[in-house]
Amino acid sequence: MNWAFLQALISGVNKYSTAFGRVWLSIVFLFRIMVFVVAAEKVWGDEQKDFKCNTAQPGCHNVCYDHFFPVSHVRLWALQLIFVTCPSLLVVMHVAYREDRERKHRLKFGENCSRLYQNTGKKRGGLWWTYVLTLLFKIGVDATFIYLLYHIYEGYDFPSLIKCKEVPCPNMVDCFIARPTEKKIFTIFMVVTSFVCIILSIFEIVYLIGKRCHECFSSNHHSRSISTNKMSSGSTLMAANSVKLSGKGTPETPAPSYSVAVS
């Protein structure tokens, strides 16, 4: 797999992400993909070759290895990274769909027509839901793979000595894992980074929901204040008009007459 191509492709969502999303992308590429490519594959590269058992019974070595390592850590983490990063492409595809609609709308009605979207990359409407659903999917993927890793290997520990009594082993045999401490450290590191990504995604969902609720509350408050001002101004105009009308209908009081005596 070309991880450089995947990194360049997924990084396109960086400009449509929040601050939490940018930190999430940095952790995924620096502390998960880079560690996986540079170190993890080399650490687990000789796991089957250096898995030793104190018996020469044909087939016992393979059966014991398959019993304790049914799925390779490297392949499991590769699937996890693919599933957790690909949903980010939905955001880029949704923005591209908006831009294409905007372009066709301008070609049909002219450049001076009203826009369908004020900002095609702004998380409003369907794009907001797409972004939130991708975050929920990422949380589900990371949590599922953490559970699978714990369930398949019965924890995150690598004991130095393993007891095996699988058929066709003649009896209880002792098997040994190559570099168990090093593999344990890398396993814990990958699990911790997965937990950190889950926490960041949760914070991002809370931030988006809180921001959306704040905007809705502010817009409702603003519309109510505008309607209140309109009603008050309307009542003032009505009162002024009524005063004018009452002034026109009242007859003028004649001036008092005075008698002038001429002597």
TrEMBL record:
Gene Ontology CC annotation, any one: connexin complex
Protein role: One gap junction consists of a cluster of closely packed pairs of transmembrane channels, the connexons, through which materials of low MW diffuse from one cell to a neighboring cell.
Connexin cysteine-rich domain span: 141-208
Domain Connexin N-terminal: 42-75
Annotated GO MF terms: gap junction channel activity
Family stated for the protein in its record: Belongs to the connexin family.
Quaternary context: A connexon is composed of a hexamer of connexins.
Domain of life: Eukaryota
Start and end residues of each stretch annotated as Disordered: 244-263
Membrane disposition: Multi-pass membrane protein
Listed InterPro entries: Connexin, Connexin_CCC, Connexin_CS, Connexin_N, Connexin_N_sf
Spans through the membrane: 21-40, 77-97, 128-150, 185-209
Coarse class of the protein's main subcellular location: other
One Pfam family named in its UniProt record: Connexin
Localisation: Cell junction, Gap junction; Cell membrane
Organism of derivation: Austrofundulus limnaeus (Annual killifish)
Protein name: Gap junction protein
